[in-house]
Specification:
6-stranded parallel sheet, Rossmann fold, 8-stranded mixed sheet, 2 domains, 17% strand, alpha/beta
Length: 384
């Protein structure tokens, strides 16, 4: 590798230390790259070998795709990176400009944005299908213009040949949680944990209905970012009247991931994900699944074919109809009443994370990809 090979990761939207993006940056820094991350943060900092160049928070979504996107690209350009790694579709027009300037550009596909547009609560209903078609057009342009990294296996339908770098748990982050005996509740009823983004399509109200179907000695913690003001208000009203519900939510910011990892240490019966059936989620292998597994927790989730294959196919949890809260409550009570079976599910999950579903295996793939891109670019330059 040459003396100075700067690579830049760009996101005008995501929390600077959001796991996937920051895991990628840390892994590249550990492999010897000089890594710059341009992302929303108060000021510039260095963490784990990654230089974070802070962006102001966007005022609204229009501000994010205009002023913030420009500022993000401008700050990255000043670092003269060998590779620009884009984490948002907002940046695709800028990515095309970078390609015209002869730059190496990676587009990191975090979501199936076309199907996501059909369920985003902030998009007016009349605009969802036209926006999805626009995203389809942008996807076609990106396919032919950039190096592609995909976060989910099924995104290969949209990006044939895209490199899979999957959202698995980072072994280092879970540390002793991978080895210490799993703590299950010794008193009362089932204790259930939900971590991550909170919306209707991510089961926000389904989890409330599950809690209503559980006995009085049950408990539930919901921890994560909730950008829907009406849902956040409903959750807070529910918590005020029902002491079984504990909330750790933020409407304007992301919950630091270390706080989520800390929550895994408490005694739980299961990690939950009762999502309604939508095209956007039915084929996604949720990051929280691998985190629940790393923490030794059984999984209680929706009965979608892809989820069933991962969860019940590997013997790490139970799948139920998300529209049947009584069935979900029955499954939670079964796990609570059968701690030996629940612990066995947790142990199988931990073993799978150590052997297959870990970020370290994905980091090797990403680092090799970067080296191949730069080697090819160097060979082209020498022959020009």
């Amino acid at each position: 590798m040459s003396a100075r090979r700067v690579v830049a990761h760009l996101t005008p939207h995501r929390y600077a230390f959001e796991p996937r993006t920051f895991f990628e940056c840390e892994s590249l820094a550990a492999a010897g790259f000089e890594v710059v991350l341009v992302a929303p943060h108060e000021g510039d900092v260095v963490r784990n070998g990654v230089r974070v160049l802070g962006l102001p928070r966007y005022r609204n979504r229009l501000d994010r795709v205009t002023r913030l996107a420009f500022l993000c690209v401008w700050r990255a350009l000043r670092e003269k990176p060998a590779i620009f790694h884009l984490h948002e579709p907002d940046l695709l027009p800028w990515g095309l400009l970078l390609r015209l300037l002869g730059k190496q550009v990676i587009y990191d596909v975090h979501e199936d944005y076309a199907t996501a547009a059909l369920v985003r609560p902030w998009i007016p209903a009349w605009a969802r299908r036209p926006l999805a078609r626009l995203v389809d057009l942008m996807t076609a342009v990106a396919r032919w213009s950039f190096h592609i990294v995909i976060a989910e296996k099924y995104y290969a339908r949209l990006f044939p040949g895209g490199l899979e770098v999957l959202n698995y748990a980072k072994l280092e982050e879970f540390g002793d949680l991978l080895d210490c005996p799993r703590a299950f509740p010794e008193e009362g009823g089932p204790h259930l944990l939900y971590t991550g983004g909170i919306t209707d399509s991510r089961g926000g109200r389904h989890h409330l209905r599950l809690l209503e179907a559980l006995p009085e000695d049950a408990a539930m913690l919901i921890i994560g970012h909730c950008g829907m003001a009406d849902l956040a208000a409903e959750l807070r009203r529910a918590a005020a009247r029902d002491p079984r519900l504990e909330l750790r939510i933020d409407e304007s910011d992301w919950i630091p991931h270390e706080e989520i990892v800390a929550a895994y240490r408490r005694p739980w019966t299961a990690g939950i994900a009762l999502f309604p059936d939508t095209p956007h989620y039915r084929e996604k292998e949720l990051t929280k699944f691998f985190e629940y597994m790393a923490a030794g927790l059984p999984i209680l989730c929706s009965d979608f074919p892809v989820w069933r294959e991962l969860v019940e196919g590997n013997g790490v949890g139970i799948c139920v109809d998300p529209e049947d809260p009584e069935a979900a409550a029955e499954a939670a009570l079964w796990l609570h009443a059968h701690p030996a079976e629940a612990r066995a599910m947790g142990k199988r999950g931990r073993r799978l994370v150590r052997e297959r579903f870990n970020w370290e295996s994905q980091a090797e793939v990403l680092v090799d990809f970067y080296r191949r891109i730069l080697d090819r670019a160097g060979a082209v330059a020498e022959n020009a």
